[in-house]
Amino acid sequence: MKLLTDLLSTGYGLLSVATIAFVLGMCVFFYFYIKRMVEKDTKNAKK
Fold first, then answer.
1. Helix, strand, or coil here: 32?
2. With 80 as the cut, is the pLDDT of residue 47 above it?
């Protein structure tokens, strides 16, 4: 329980949560971006 208290109430805990959220957001962005580019290249290669 102290872990959650420290994580959500201290500066370093909040920065850790923000960093983890940012990294996960980047992963989602890159997944969809690369997926879209692969589909676009596949479509162009068939022409």
1. helix
2. no
Distance, CA of 45 to CA of 47 (rounded, Å):
5
26 and 34 in contact (C-beta within 8 Å)? no
How far apart, in whole angstroms, are the C-alpha atoms of residue 30 and residue 44?
A: 21
Distance CA 42, CA 9 (A): 48
Distance CA 14, CA 16 (A): 5
Put simply, whether the predicted model's pTM sits higher than 0.70 gets the answer: yes
DSSP 8-state assignment for residue 1: -
Return the domain boundaries, the chain: 2-45
